[in-house]
Amino acid sequence: MKNWNFITLMLIVLLLSCSNKKQGKSAILHQDTMQAVLWDVIRADALSTQASRLDSTKKPLLENAKLQQAIFAYHKISREQFYNSFNYYKSNAALMRAILDSMINKANRERVTGINPIPLITPAQ
Question: What is the pTM of this model?
Fold first, then answer.
């Protein structure tokens, strides 16, 4: 369980660490919206990584970019809104912690109930 939480947090950091530094206060997503979008972005990253492991012709970065565009369209936000909001929440530790804690709790609930589990592939040893 702790291992899954670590993987989730690492995906967040890796996926979003190189984002744009501009912050438009008016374009900041509400916490609930940010949580929903971030949840989908992390799941898309896991899906594109798994797809590339199963099919060597798939390029994970390209697949992830396509999935992110679909996520942003679904939530009716722009890429810039997402990354500006992420930077805002990243600079406000208490707000980001609340979002991440909610996401971890949601992941744990889904794993226990079997609803929408993220399939994880462990590396071959």
Answer: 0.66
Taking the domains of the chain in order of start, what are their residue ranges? Answer: 28-113
Q: What percent of the chain has pLDDT over 90?
A: 43
Distances (CA, A) of 37 to 45, 103, 122, 124: 12, 11, 26, 31
Distance CA 42, CA 11 (A): 7
Q: How far apart are CA 97 and CA 109, in angstroms?
A: 18
Q: Three-state SS string across the chain, please? A: CHHHHHHHHHHHHHHHCCCCCCCCHHHCCCHHHHHHHHHHHHHHHHHHHHHHHHCCCCCHHHHHHHHHHHHHHHCCCCHHHHHHHHHHHHHCHHHHHHHHHHHHHHHHHHHHHCCCCCCCCCCCC
